[in-house]
Amino acid sequence: MSLYVYALVAKGPSEELGTGMSGEALRVVASGRLLAVVGDMYAPPPVTPTALYEHDRTIRRMTAITDAVLPLRFGSIVDGELDLARRLEPAEATLEAALTRVAGREQMTVRLYERQPRVEEDTRMSAPPAVAADLGPGARYLLERRRTLEHDPHRAALDAVLAAPASFIRAQRVESHGSRPLIASVHHLIERGQGAAYAAAVHAGTANLIDAAVTVSGPWPPYAFASGELT
Amino acid sequence: MTTPSRTEAARLLDEADASLLDLVDNVLTKGVVIDGEIILGLAGVDLVYLRLGAILCAADRIKAQR
Prior knowledge:
heterodimer, A: alpha+beta, 4-stranded antiparallel beta sheet, 7 helices, 10 strands, B: mainly alpha
């Protein structure tokens, strides 16, 4: 029997953990200074919408009953408690710091979409002006980089998304996407209970965007702030 | 394996109130990773970042595993 690992938590929840995505009883396993919420499972569940929702439901349940939750990625299975301890030990300090960062906080996600194709700008970006041949490689790189940023038609929109909820932001992850219409995904860590005010701030701060649209989702457990790898 | 129609895929997305895109992105591409132990049934999580048509394709793939 293997262990499906849902999340790391800072403290053992005082309430009943309930069941996991397959109906298995959840329990907390201690490993060094870390606690992991696990369930017995023979094999990872197939990736279906139901499984994804159940995984998320379980993480949300943990979030509701404890202050700091660091989700593991869907499908995380180890051979048992000893295997889990072996994997957690080298990353203990990093994971503890991550748990401290997410304590009492939740994630909001903003997607920035292109409203309509910008053929002119796209063409300009793919074929930037020629760079002077007498510049060195470093200077050429910096000049090309500056021109690319100057010609990015969505830079102002992204700046608005980042600035509008500034007072709520405790941590930030920004992902740029090369495939339109999605321009960027912005994940913000905010204090719990501030989601509605955060969303209102984003919508107010981006209402005048012409070429881009935004969607706001959340609150989510802090998925985007649970980076790290257990080898 | 039965391939669901595009209409089915669209319906699946419509009914996914929390946004399947956000769910897939968060649950499948975020979180602490256990090296070598992640089983992904999706043929490329980058699918979630493609334009709407491709997103519907991603929904097709998810639905097909039911």
